[in-house]
Amino acid sequence: MQNAAQTSTPLRQFAYHTTTTCAIQASVYGKCIVATYTDVKKDTCKAEFDNFSKCLQDAVRPLPSNPRKSLII
Question: Which residues contact 33 (CB under 8 A, 6 or more apart)?
């Protein structure tokens, strides 16, 4: 049986990984934004965002870019 992330749309899969697989990185990034929102400057939370972004990319990357190709025998 496949989990929800494997059987849903790309957007649902992205949301799933945002709240589960990459929850720690999302939290760190969110805390940085909250701590600096009154004095926002370019790249203030860049390192935190980069870590969160990489986690999401790694989590979603295994999906085939064209699902039809995976059906060809």
Answer: 45
